[in-house]
Design goal:
Structural class: alpha/beta
Radius of gyration: 23 Å
Number of helices: 12
Distance between the termini: 62 Å
Order of helices and strands: HHHHEHEHEHEEHEHEHEHEEHEE
Number of strands: 12
Strand order of the largest sheet: 2-1-3-4-5-11
Length: 335
C-alpha cells in the first residue's frame, strides 16, 4: 500500500506539501498541486481516515523541548523546525526543560491534555508521564526525538552518527602527528557523549598511540573545559578534542592564559560548528552538524505520524562534516 512518503518522493516534494494538497489545496501553487494529485491518482494513495478523524480536533501546535535554551546550538535546530512546521500548518511551542525531569513532565502534560498535537524533544529521555501513551496499542505516539539518539528510546529519531564523528576527530589529530590527546566529554548520562567517546576510543585503538586518550568530563560549557585544561596539560597533551564548540573555546582561552598558543603548542577540535566557530581566533576546527535539517526532519517525521503514516520507529541519520580550520596543526614543540 503506497504511503505519503511514496507520493512525496514521486512528486519531488515534501510530505508536508502532500499533506497540504490533500487538506488545504488552496495553499499550494497550482502546478505543484496538480503534480501531487496526479501522483496520488497513479499510485492509488488513500490517507488514513481514522487518523484524519482524530486530527479534526487538532491544536495545530507542536511542542519542542530543549534541555538548555541558552545553548546556541539549539537556536538553529529550532529555526529549522519552525520553518518545517509553518509549511505544514503548525505553530511551534518551545519549552526550556533545563535538564530537569519535573519540568520535562510538566511540558509533556501539554500533549496529554491535547494542548499540542505532538512533541519533539531534543534531550535524551522521554518524560515518564508519556509512558502510557507510548505503550498504547494502535497508532504511533506523536513523539519524535532529535539530536540525542538512543536505540532503546522507542520513538522515531533524527541525529548524526556521533560515534563516526568522534572517530573522524581523533583520526584527524593522529594524521597531524599527535599521539597524546586529551578528550573533554559531555555528561556521561548523555547518549551523544557516550557515542562520541566510543568513536574516539575506537579510532585511538586503531593506532599505536604512545599513551591512551586522556579523558575528562565536562558539561558542554566553556567554563567546564577551561577548568580542565590545566590537568590535561600536566599530562603532556598536544591536542584536545572537545565535545562542543563552547568547550573548545573555553579550552583555547585556558591555553592562552597558560602562555601557550593554539595550534602551535596545542591543537583543538570542537563539535557543532556554531556560528562563531569560523570567526573565533583561531578559527575553530570542528565537527559540523546539519542543525537546521535536524529540526526540519524531526518535524517532517512528526507530521507523518499525525497524518497516520507508519514510521516504524524510523531512525534518520544525517551526515556530519569535519571542517578543518586554524585551530589544528601538525604536532608542535610540546611533543
Amino acid at each position: 500500500m503506497p504511503t505519503i512518503i511514496d507520493v512525496a518522493a514521486r512528486a519531488g516534494v515534501s510530505t508536508a506539501t502532500v499533506s497540504r494538497v490533500l487538506s488545504k489545496p488552496d495553499r499550494v501553487a497550482a502546478e505543484t498541486r496538480l503534480r501531487v494529485l496526479e501522483v496520488v491518482r497513479s499510485l492509488g494513495y488513500a490517507p488514513n481516515v481514522a487518523a484524519r478523524a482524530l486530527r479534526t480536533f487538532r491544536a495545530a501546535k507542536i511542542l519542542l523541548t530543549v534541555p538548555d535554551i541558552s545553548n546556541t546550538f539549539f537556536a538553529t535546530v529550532i529555526r529549522g523546525a519552525e520553518e518545517a512546521a509553518r509549511d505544514a500548518g503548525y505553530a511551534v511551542v518551545v519549552g526550556d526543560t533545563r535538564h530537569d525531569p519535573e519540568v520535562e513532565d510538566r511540558y509533556a502534560e501539554m500533549l496529554s491534555r491535547r494542548e499540542v498535537d505532538g512533541l519533539i524533544f531534543l534531550g535524551h529521555r522521554i518524560p515518564e508521564s508519556l509512558e502510557p501513551l507510548l505503550s498504547r496499542p494502535g497508532d504511533a505516539a506523536p513523539i519524535v526525538n532529535g539530536c540525542e539518539y538512543s536505540p532503546g528510546i522507542g520513538v522515531p529519531s533524527v541525529h548524526i552518527d556521533n560515534a563516526a564523528a568522534g572517530s573522524d576527530a581523533i583520526e584527524h589529530l593522529i594524521a597531524l602527528g599527535h599521539r597524546t590527546i586529551g578528550v573533554i566529554t559531555g555528561p556521561p548520562i548523555s547518549p551523544i557523549s557516550r557515542d562520541r567517546l566510543a568513536g574516539a576510543m575506537n579510532a585511538a585503538g586503531r593506532h599505536d598511540l604512545c599513551a591512551p586518550l586522556q579523558v575528562r568530563t565536562g558539561d558542554y560549557s566553556a567554563r567546564s573545559a577551561f577548568d580542565l585544561v590545566g590537568d590535561l596539560l600536566a599530562q603532556g597533551v598536544t591536542a584536545l578534542f572537545c565535545f562542543s564548540d563552547e568547550m573548545a573555546m573555553g579550552a583555547i582561552s585556558a591555553l592562552a592564559q597558560a602562555g601557550l598558543s593554539c595550534p602551535d603548542d596545542v591543537s583543538v577540535i570542537g563539535f557543532d560548528d556554531l556560528p562563531l566557530a569560523r570567526f573565533f581566533q583561531p578559527a575553530l576546527t570542528t565537527i559540523a552538524q546539519p542543525k537546521a535539517m535536524i529540526g526540519r526532519r524531526a518535524v517532517e517525521l512528526l507530521v507523518e505520524i499525525l497524518n497516520g503514516v507508519d514510521t516504524s520507529l524510523r531512525q534518520v541519520t544525517l551526515p556530519h562534516e569535519l571542517l578543518i580550520r586554524g585551530s589544528t596543526a601538525a604536532r608542535g614543540p610540546r611533543a
